[in-house]
Amino acid sequence: YKCSQNSDLTKRARKIENLSKQRDKLPITRYDCNGILKIAIDINSKTADIQLYHDLIHDRPERISVNQEIRNFIGDRLHQTPAEI
């Protein structure tokens, strides 16, 4: 797994022609942190080898809260695909 703020994960913004569907949200801040988490599980010996690398300590991304109404909406539709919702 790579750090969610790793600059390697930067994608170019794409615009959608339908203006009502454009979100124009600000991108998260990216860093050259080389953050990576490697997990190797050995079922036979019931052990896990965990390696964490992070070259740069940086701020965490801003947390975005989801209100209870949205949580309930999602919870009521767990059997549906995103396209069906």
How does this model look, in words?
With 85 residues, the chain is mostly beta strands. The protein has one domain (7-75). The protein is built from one helix and two strands; from the N terminus they run ββα. It has one helix at residues 68-75; strands at residues 36-42, 47-53. The protein has a two-stranded antiparallel ribbon. The two termini are 29 Å apart. The relative contact order is 0.19.
Unreliably modeled segments: none
Estimate the helix proportion, in percent: under 10%
State which percent range the strand residues make up: 15-25%
Can you count the helices?
1
Question: Shape from CA axes?
Answer: extended
Please state the average pLDDT score: 86
Largest sheet: 2 strands, antiparallel
Number of strands: 2
Q: How far from one another are the termini?
A: 29 Å
What letter string, H or E per element, gives the SSE order?
Answer: EEH
What is Rg? 19 Å
| Helix-strand category | mainly beta
Strand order of the largest sheet: 1-2
- Our count of domains comes out at 1
Keywords, separated by commas or semicolons:
85 residues; 16% strand; two-stranded antiparallel sheet; 1 helix; mainly beta
Write a concise synopsis of the structure shown.
It is built from 1 helix and 2 strands, in the order ββα.
SSE topology sketch:
Elements: E1 36-42, E2 47-53, H1 68-75
Antiparallel strand pairs: 1-2
